[in-house]
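Bench log, entry 3. Co-assembly request; chain sequences pasted below exactly as received.
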Amino acid sequence: MILGIIADDFTGATDVASMLVRAGMRTVQVIGVPAGPAPDADAIVVALKTRTVPAVDAVAESLAALRWLQAAGMRQCYFKYCSTFDSTPAGNIGPVTDALMDALGTEFTIACPAFPENGRTIFRGHLFVGDELLSDSGMRHHPLTPMLDADLVRVLQAQTARRVGLLRFDTIAQGADAVRTRMTALRRESVAIAIADATTNDDLRTLSAACADLPLLTAGSGLALGLPAIYAERGWLTPNVHAGELDPVRGGSAVLSGSCSLATNAQVQRWREACRPAIAIDPRALARGEPVAEGAIAWARSQTPGEAVLVYATAAAQELQAVQSELGAMHAGALVEACLAQIARGLVAHGVRRLLIAGGETSGAAVQALGVTQLRIGALICPGVPWTQADNSFAGERLHLALKSGNFGGPDFFIEALHAST
Ligand code: ADP
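Structure output for the full assembly:
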């Protein structure tokens, strides 16, 4: 096993796994830290749900994942977080990075959430989402981790006692040797974590070459695209063209959406405009204790067999704010997650075998409720979102799951995903 990845949410885990698979690395994603030994693979991604839990819990779970990956013989460790650096001043990117650095006995690492293919670029330490600064993008309204500052050096410095510095674009443009020289200089200046600029995949390849000997990398999924080539050059990896093939499934299809991102709002709207079957989840009804999940499952069963249904809690910013101020953001989020997870279980119990889930936290809750412990990573639907295969679930039958990070995918993503072959 070459690369051990600790991902702070489930959609992020499939995202980074798909980067490796498309470069021929046999990659398995495990849900939580398994009790048993590691499966046979070139890379293993441990999917945690630690993005918004208290920092102390995120640290404890990440360290447990690290120990399990170390026991599996990992050569390099990668802490994967969101390409929009989703976090709060309390963490959890800083505290988890600190704990992993301490445990690995390493004094230096980089932090690079860039994912240019999805419009996330970093310039002079500032994160852009498309043409907007992070703090001007839809992320400022995120239900759990609103991002109000695009200066990643400042954002990360608020989360760690270690010194945070910057690896600037003009150094990266000079190639891997220049980056290594600069990293040595930064270490002399007592910088322990460097935010790395990257606006193109070539920048990410330069960074992965320059950082090949670092015991720990911290990044979004983008940095992973350069790693398989480095491992192949070192003779550690023989790329496998069949790394992304899945087995077929037979059964119904459904979409569950718990993301309130701009992209997902557009996807829900497009589905409804196409007059496809859709039902909304009302958080206020959940708070009143009404049997919302049972109602949605019964509704789904009453639809035309063979036609995919959408169950969504997705709401636009204004409606979301109104609900959150009534119920509290965390409480509303937890109610909606638990409801969608129960619906996921109900749909699979009644024959759904292909399930597309929109939202990182939502995916985490649903996958846990389905009793899925391991995912094989298949072909990409769009950058960052592959179909995956779960061989073990509570239903005892193979499932195909697509776990979509809220902001990913174009307006027709739901429809495209269901048409994509798996
Ligand atoms: P993303 O990938 O866009 O960040 P997540 O699923 O991670 O999406 O987070 C969205 C959060 O918002 C979840 O906790 C979800 O339960 C919550 N949520 C979704 N819809 C609503 C709603 N209508 N009102 C309140 N909270 C909601």
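Residues 143-144, 258-261, 283, 313-315, 320, 323-324, 332-333, 336-337, 359-362, 405-406 surround adenosine-5'-diphosphate (CB under 6 Å). The domain at 3-233 is CATH 3.40.50.10840 (Rossmann fold).
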